[in-house]
């Protein structure tokens, strides 16, 4: 019953600490809502400039289909290649599309011609969006051209699995939930032991017949009870406020989230046992979060990472959580279909739970 | 069991710094033993090693027969501990703090409640039982810490500077509590750097730079340092120094308002003073007054650490 004494004591202390309460309740809400506002609205458009040196009929058709492309909009017109390049260089537009002189004439003659696209490569997402948009424009233009001369052509037809459409919001929901479930519990509990050491209460505590397991698991249980709220808040906001469709069973998503939450608490506890003071613990919690984010597979799919980076990703618990959660939410999988991720998360949790009490020494030095 | 604490050859090194140097110490069951010395003398380090909070570099520690650190679990059951710094939870109330530690000692239900109420009564904390520990005055904090240390009725109470930074009247009241506990049979080890407090102890050990430089009852220590009790005798008129040669062991001679003031060292004042006075009287000198001087432990300590120690065979 010593364990329960620790649990009750920790919960009373949490209840009286405004900083912790804000962290438990407000941070997940704020992160989720910011994310919803940021990713939930319609897509923005990327600006381009058009340099039409042809000014004949077919060039207007191209221009028309650029204007109809949802991801770009024409912000400026220029009269020469140099002028178009300057607009891109000065950051006024992200790309300039140059339709050369004699564009229509050449095509009418049955010859090939070119359209020059000057792209700002400094932001890769923007440049690849422009490439994709221009490919689509050219593809559509060619389809129409071929149809008008009664030639034969190949048309692409897409059919989706797990579709029909996954919104940006849905695509990033697993990552954001992962961020909340790692950052909040880890940094919250990371001060649990070193705060006692810093304030001197540890010395009194270990002069009583308490074991390291009572200390560690009492605190873990108390913080688990408190941070269950984070798991519920993030899931509820996602499902009810963002209206992301949870295709798999909600209970499975909760089980996976709970596993990951427990791992985060164990990690925070380990940090706390190893840290000398609260500042150090906080910094460690945040520092550990950075690789978790980078190798989560959510910013960049790990299939696209280098082999060495892939090994790191395979060692990142966040990667397993994000992929398991995505499988449940978007693919509609149940737990029995994600046993590998489950297993990895279980191992992570178990390791974290065991190491903290092994490292803790009941001494003051 | 005769000894509550038996320490021999205890040494603690931090790198090259020797914090505790080959310390030998014995404290009898039922004693109040005072550990005296300036800050940094090694008192806290010694206490922490005794409680298994810190590993000794060398030496053996036995508390009620239990070897430390090996049998620390047994030690904890019979020891109440009060750290130098207030080390209870400031965000828990007086009652909650006692309740928490009580539960850790395996108390519960009515037993626990009764014990807490008893201690709140004894330590006069009943009215502030719901107050957060962080909002208590220094004296109340100190009493609460004592209460937590007593929750499991320990045989041995270890108090590290319990009265540091507390006003003198509160310090005195605190010692009343300690004496009360001692009467009921609790062995007490207490450190302090207030020399006046040490007069309350049955025996004291003076510590300086990691070493125990003297040990004994307050009276013994004073006698040993000065070679006995000091008595001040005032004689009428001007008496020359050589006059009293062979009559008394003269420590000091001074003149005040035309009278002569002697400070004489006697092995045991209560037995030897009358004979001394008769000898002086027999010389035809007129005695105005004679009284034993109350030497403070502070003087003893200064005497010891300023190197005049060689004069006295300890």
For the structure shown, list the relevant keywords.
heterodimer, A: 365 residues, alpha/beta, abc type-2 transporter like fold, 4-stranded mixed beta sheet, 15 helices, 4 strands, 6% strand, elongated, B: 314 residues, Rossmann fold, Alpha-Beta Plaits, 2 domains, 4-stranded antiparallel beta sheet, 32% helix
Kindly describe this structure:
- The complex is a heterodimer of chains A (365) and B (314).
- Chain A is α/β, with parallel strands linked by helices and 365 residues long.
- Chain A has two domains: 2-40 and 166-359, no CATH class; 46-148, abc type-2 transporter like fold (3-Layer(aba) Sandwich).
- Chain A is built from 15 helices and four strands.
- Chain A has a four-stranded mixed beta sheet with strand order 2-1-3-4, sandwiched between helices.
- In chain A, helix 3 (57-68) links the parallel strand 1 and strand 2 (72-78).
- The mean pLDDT of chain A is 90.
- Helices cover 32% and strands 30% of the residues of chain B.
- Chain B has helices spanning 43-50, 72-78, 94-104, 109-122, 138-150, 168-183, 218-226, 269-282, 297-305; strands at 3-14, 17-28, 32-36, 58-63, 66-68, 79-82, 156-160, 187-192, 203-208, 211-216, 229-235, 250-256, 259-266, 287-292.
- In chain B, the strands form three sheets. Chain B has a six-stranded mixed beta sheet, with helices on both faces. Chain B has a four-stranded antiparallel beta sheet with strand order 2-1-4-5. A four-stranded antiparallel beta sheet of chain B has the order 12-13-11-14.
- In chain B, helix 7 crosses helix 9.
- Chain B is α/β, with parallel strands linked by helices and 314 residues long.
- Residues 308-314 of chain B have low confidence and may be disordered.
- Chain B folds into two domains: 3-216, Rossmann fold, CATH 3.40.50.300; 227-311, Alpha-Beta Plaits.
- Chain B contains nine helices and 14 strands.
- The two termini of chain B are 28 Å apart.
- In chain B, a hairpin with a 2-residue loop joins strand 12 and strand 13 (259-266).
- Classes of the chains: A alpha/beta (365), B alpha/beta (314).
